[in-house]
Amino acid sequence: xxxxxxxxxxxxxxxxxxxxxxxxxxxxxxxxxxxxxxxxxxxxxxxxxxxxxxxxxxxxxxxxxxxxxxxxxxxxxxxxxxxxxxxxxxxxxxxxxxxxxxxxxxxxxxxxxxxxxxxxxxxxxxxxxxxxxxxxxxxxxxxxxxxxxxxxxxxxxxxxxxxxxxxxxxxxxxxxxxxxxxxxxxxxxxxxxxxxxxxxxxxxxxxxxxxxxxxxxxxxxxxxxxxxxxxxxxxxxxxxxxxxxxxxxxxxxxxxxxxxxxxxxxxxxxxxxxxxxxxxxxxxxxxxxxxxxxxxxxxxxxxxxxxxxxxxxxxxxxxxxxxxxxxxxxxxxxxxxxxxxxxxxxxxxxxxxxxxxxxxxxxxxxxxxxxxxxxxxxxxxxxxxxxxxxxxxxxxxxxxxxxxxxxxxxxxxxxxxxxxxxxxxxxxxxxxxxxxxxxxxxxxxxxxxxxxxxxxxxxxxxxxxxxxxxxxxxxxxxxxxxxxxxxxxxxxxxxxxxxxxxxxxxxxxxxxxxxxxxxxxxxxxxxxxxxxxxxxxxxxxxxxxxxxxxxxxxxxxxxxxxxxxxx
Length: 567
Ligand SMILES: Nc1ncnc2c1ncn2[C@@H]1O[C@H](COP(=O)(O)OP(=O)(O)OP(=O)(O)O)[C@@H](O)[C@H]1O
Prior knowledge:
567 residues; alpha+beta; Ubiquitin-like (UB roll); 4 domains; six-stranded antiparallel sheet; globular; binds adenosine-5'-triphosphate
């Protein structure tokens, strides 16, 4: 595994030829599969679906389909049912393969009594979590209060992260040993006390943890040019207050860096996304995504080529604007109670994690040309037990799916695959969905809008009255003004997208439409068939004179939309 989290394919001496289908009259084409510096020629048919190409890569290379992302000509080949030809891939083209590596770590556990077994745990979990799992799943194996976990003679504190331990193992497996806790019992004996150490092996080596020594770099007094790192929120308009939760996020992230904790690059995703730790180094606190490491940006760490025309991986987006879109999704995710109040409720209706624009300098980011300050989105790290990609949607509460659908429709999200919805459990034991990765929201065309939830059963259920009230309270003009206030002067075409999608959502609920019905209007059925919303926009474009005002254009869109939706 390379440090970039991408598995390298060694260049093959002979061509990797994938057999054309038998009895097929179509001529195969040869394309080049590029990955981590190596290139493998593969033979495909124009009519092959993207899914089938991925399946063949899976069978030849072992990367499961859901972990593969294919990019050709600056565009993600995202639709599984579309064909190689649909995406305009032709003979000699280069297809970039980005493989998402699992964040799961194999753990082997042994106990003093000789029991042994192996299981997997998310690398972002800590030892305390592993203990609980052992106690819960393997009854009798461990009593949380009575036993310690050891790794190579070192006692592991409950807060210790699994990925931290995995750095030191060579064979890809962490070997843990469960042993009885050493206890000190104090028993009164007449006027004295007897001190007993109750431990099976009192001579265990307990290593001194040097990370406990405080490291102060005097960041407030050392001039910036002499500092090893810095982190500030980017505040364009001094009048635009940041919510307290956002300030706390910056502070905790800063403390983590100050203590010397290195940002850890996620093995998932097509861009650079870095997990940042808190001051005590015990948990992740935030995720920093620098704009120069976005897919097809100059310092992208996943080997994707530079964008030739500045367009991002999804149609209608721009490379380098992902961070603004991430922040916009948070700012526009208004709480149910009304607009976000800066000292009060910070959680929005759809639960977008608190996100701000930040500038950060640290050697731990990808700096092929020397360490420089980076601008990017800083988002609160949300504890989770995986993403919607890891499980069937059946158990998700309807309201949870609906809250994501409202966000995606409003924002015309062009990247809502199930991997971008994290899953956790609320206090009531029900699944809670957390939407992340909003770098492709508010595109200036609807072409790439895709919503994985469209095919989930909950999408066919009607919105609740609470959700309908929320949708009725939305106001695109107010939203555009809010983004403007925070410093993002939304380009005209993107503002138009927000106006049209908000209009569709509102008109949809007025007519009692479900998220499925509204979402289907926004998404293409297949790559080459325009969506209903695209047809509406096209018709409106044809109707109005080029010099017409935005208001006149929106009036026309409204009339056409009413006609298409029916009364
Ligand atoms: N707020 C968050 N809390 C917890 N984990 C997160 C958060 N944001 C991102 N992640 C994790 O980091 C990984 C990479 O982040 P993200 O998906 O945003 O990156 P990306 O490069 O934009 O991905 P994509 O290729 O899906 O567009 C995610 O798969 C997720 O596991």
